[in-house]
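SAM-dependent methyltransferase, tRNA(Uracil-5)-methyltransferase: structure, please.
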Amino acid sequence: MVSLQKTYSFTLNKEILNTGTQYFINKNINTDISSLLLKGFDLEGVDTKEVVEQIEAKKKSEKKLPTWFKTDKIYYPNKLNIEQTSSEITAHYKASLVNGKKLVDLTGGFGVDSYYFSKRFKEVLHFEINENLSKIATHNFKVLGQKNIFTFAEDGISFLEKTKDNFDCIFVDPSRRDNKKNKVFLLQDCAPNMQLVLPVLLKKSPTIIVKTSPLLDISKGIEELKKVVEIHVVAVNNDVKELLWIIKDKKTTTPLIRTINFSKHITEEFDFHLNEESNTNTEFSLPKKYLYEPNSAILKSGGFNSIATKLNLSKLHPNTHLYTNDELINFPGRSFIIKDIIPYNKKALKKILPENKANITTRNFPESVDQIRKKTKITDGGNTYLFFCTNINNEKIIIHSEKTT
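Here you go.
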């Protein structure tokens, strides 16, 4: 059991948590902030800025952090901290990857990841160098009833360099904001710089989990982080939210790449080893009966050949990441039945689009969706899906399709 607890030099404004203020916040959760400020309000013990900050941050938590949103007496930081924190669905996923006695969260922030790790570990150490944010997380952990999280408003790297303890897992989510609060994503621009601190981390734990921006190039990450055994590409509603890098101090021939896409009704998963991507023989063909578009996690992972081979699909072109076959399969992405294949010209389009309305996607095509809409005057929507792409014969074609049920 960790005995050291941080002594704070300040206290949060607990007046924000009184019944009257909390009632006002909840009552105005959907109120336009500008009109609220114009109207004005007077609450005892709190100023206008504090209340507005609570309303804005809580509103942003409604879908992203439903447990926090539904719990009384939660204290919120500014909305930027909520924007930067993991969602509950991604925090729950990363916690499912590990378990043990002790975990260190080096960049704890608002504490969502620590909260879910605490359900898989007997003890979680939450480090957050921002004293105010650390105090907020400490309060909320108590409100949420998680008694096995120990908070420290200090630099976690310095702690690891001094402590004699070892840990089952270390989690780190490097800050992706520079000194001017601009967004960054390259490893050397984030804090801490993982290339510099990894040797220290690996001396203290057999398993390191690093969360990075989805913008980070996977091959670049493997090259710089060195001992990567797994990479998890995590998407929510077809929007890639984060890359998780599992690092161990052991030899590995090739990392396992795991993709997962959470949506309202289903969870799509697809795994492959990196060396499979370059060693597999992909079949190419003209469009058949069905068309398949991989979800964003797979597209980010670069498993373009692996998915074709593992699911017995043909690819339309080496650089056209669309797939086809004659039998409908369960596919991690969108599936379509092909109605027609036409050359790219206005005359052909008019024949299949009497209402001039369709959903448009481009893959390996010289024009963007906006350019196509401007040129053809096709409006967005409806049940028709048009894929502007290049086939195996290097022809520019339009695949007229509808979603499978």
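Notes: The first strand starts at residue 100 and ends at 105.
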